[in-house]
Amino acid sequence: MKSANEFKGVFIHRNLVDMRKSINGLSEIVEMAQMDELMGLYLFGFCGRRWDLIKVLYFHSSGFCLWMKRLEKDKFPWPRKLDREVVSLTPSQFAWLLEGYDIWKVKPFEKFQFDQVI
Fold it and tell me: What pTM value is reported for the model?
């Protein structure tokens, strides 16, 4: 798989998905959920009922690619309590998610803008 940083953004489908779905079934979910431009520079992530398997769909130059990662012991931290169907992540956040970090509990510094500098 290409590095996550090579993509504009990442969209996670919060609801659980039947992991038997392949490219066609997952691309239908992307279109129905209006996640974003299916053939753009985006990653689309899906997780199953046991939270130990993640599938990632993306388009690369002339066709779709499907990538998956299965954990042997742990579970992926998935945004179960959010009320949105689609969650947008930065490529860095997605890389952290794949490494097992619970990005839903990590909060960055608040962005601050100065009106003037003294």
Answer: 0.82
Q: Is residue 115 part of a domain?
A: no
The Cα–Cα gap between 48 and 15 comes to 9
Q: What is the count of structural domains for the chain? A: 1
Find the domain containing 73 and state its range: 4-99
Task: Name the pairing type of β-strands 86-89 and 9-13.
Answer: antiparallel
Residue 44 belongs to some domain of the structure: yes
CA 70 to chain centre: 15
List strand residue ranges (DSSP E) for 5-109, in order: 9-13, 42-47, 53-60, 63-70, 86-89
The structure tokens listed for 85 are 């169907």
- pLDDT tens for each residue of 56-101: 999 988 899 999 999 999 898 888 777 888 899 999 899 988 888 8
